[in-house]
Specification:
four-stranded parallel beta sheet; alpha/beta; globular; binds ligand AN7
Length: 355
């Protein structure tokens, strides 16, 4: 396949996805994201394992949600739907509104007031979605959208829509197609738990098709203040700096537990401090800017490595789910303020250390 022929995930993985009439395929050429080998962090943390980053921030709207959205919106269009709706911590709303714009249908997005990163909000607005901020959290927004879609002719495009999961599983296909085998471990953030379920489905389907001989351990991480699966109960008021995964009652809870248990993996919690440390490390030591929720994967790897979880030779893939530019305020907040100097060479050289 040459790049010029790339047609998005529905075309590339048609053998594993529902079929659509060509005219109903709504794609912005999502997928085909790079698998980047760690150059510096791996050496430092554990030179006996291989670390790869699946950089999903390079999807058209800057997150992995586009893989599922192309399938969900193509299905909505095939069914004659004129509008879609989702609840979102930000990225689903960005993706839904872009794909709806491309399809020429309406989108409605319900978001928790003041709790979504500014880049994501700007996306929903610029793509023309009707953005409804609710005085509540994601879980409450999701239950509202489920009620509304039960009563009105409008398609729900959260990951409870099975077409979303179908699209998202293509990321595991890409990992295998790139490596030539399944990794020993696949590490993901867990919010509403759709993605870890989708990856696991993808790996299993590739194994059934004879494309891989083994399956990875699925290693999922939740933020400490929003870790219902780890705690074993709903978190009523979830909180974390990683707003993308500020979710207290994940819709795919059971599927995520199955993915963990069938694969022999873990789902654990990580503190906000450790999330932000990993976030800075990725930016400063690998040149990769992802959002805090995505960096939880590296924090999780560091945590497990600290108790010698990995075997020598293990290949670990970390999915960096969203682009750092989604959340510029957070990046600025944790960084050194830029200095301001008079406009002369001497002052500039002084800051550079060339006195
Ligand atoms: C960057 O956009 O739930 O466990 O409404 O944006 O499949 O929910 C986002 C989730 C990880 C968690 N990383 O994935 C939403 C939303 C990023 C995310 C997750 C999200 P799931």
């Amino acid at each position: 396949m040459t790049a010029i022929n790339y047609g998005g995930v529905i075309k590339r993985y048609s053998d594993f996805l529902p079929e659509f009439d060509e005219k109903n395929i709504i794609t912005i050429l999502e997928g085909n994201t790079p698998l980047i080998k760690s150059r510096n962090i791996g050496k430092k943390i554990n030179p006996h394992i291989e670390i790869y980053f699946k950089y999903e921030g390079l999807n058209p709207t800057g997150s992995f949600k586009d893989r599922g959205m192309t399938v969900a919106v193509s299905k909505a269009v095939s069914d004659g739907s004129k509008a879609i709706i989702c609840a979102s911590t930000g990225n689903t709303s960005a993706s839904a509104s872009a794909y709806a714009a491309r399809a020429g249908i309406k989108s409605f997005v319900l978001i928790p007031e003041g709790k979504i990163a500014s880049g994501k909000l700007s996306q929903a607005l610029v793509h023309g979605a009707t953005v409804i901020q609710i005085k509540g959290n994601f879980d409450e927004a999701l239950s509202l959208t489920r009620e509304i879609t039960g009563e009105y002719e409008i398609t729900l495009v959260n990951s409870v829509n099975p077409y979303r999961v179908e699209g998202q599983k293509t990321a595991s296909f890409e990992v295998v197609d790139e490596l030539g085998f399944a990794p020993a471990c696949h590490i993901l953030p867990v919010g509403n738990a759709g993605n870890i379920s989708a990856y696991w489905k993808g790996y299993r389907e590739y194994k059934d098709a004879g494309n891989i001989g083994s399956l990875p351990k699925m290693l999922g991480f939740q933020a400490e203040g929003a870790a219902p699966i780890v705690l074993g109960h709903v978190v009523k008021e979830p909180h974390t700096v990683a707003t993308a995964i500020r979710i207290g009652n994940p819709a795919s809870w059971k599927k995520a537990v199955l993915a963990r248990d069938e694969s022999g993996g873990v789902i654990e919690a990580i503190s906000d401090d450790d999330i932000l440390k990993a976030y800075s490390m990725l930016a400063q030591e690998e040149g990769i800017f992802c959002e805090p929720a995505s960096a939880i994967t590296l924090a999780g790897l560091i945590k497990l490595n600290g108790r010698n979880y990995f075997n020598n030779g293990d290949v670990c893939v970390l999915t960096l789910t969203g682009h750092g530019l989604k959340d510029p305020n957070n990046a600025i907040k944790i960084s050194k303020e830029p200095v301001v100097v008079p406009c002369d060479k001497k002052s500039v050289l002084k800051v550079m250390g060339f006195n």
